[in-house]
Amino acid sequence: TSTRRVEGARARRQPHKVAMAEASQHDDLAEILAEASQQQQQDPTNIVVRLKRAYVNEKNAPELLPFEHDLLEQVMAKVEDQELVVQQSREAAAAAGGGGG
Question: At the top level of its lineage, which domain of life is listed (predicted)?
């Protein structure tokens, strides 16, 4: 409790510094949350979940919903990555004499 009294006294003497520190903490927290959200959105499992949710929402909505541009871009990027992996696997198999397709 004595620590709280000291902090409270400091806050009363320097309210602008406390407000700036709190604003900085809020900015830092917002940045961390935005970064985590972006990483979570790019997770392949989460992309599938988001795509399923968008499909179900659209199917059950009485009118068209806003287009999910970022989600579609992420799905297309994953599809293109997978196509590249398949192509490289086929080329490696053909070079090794396996045929592959």
Answer: Eukaryota
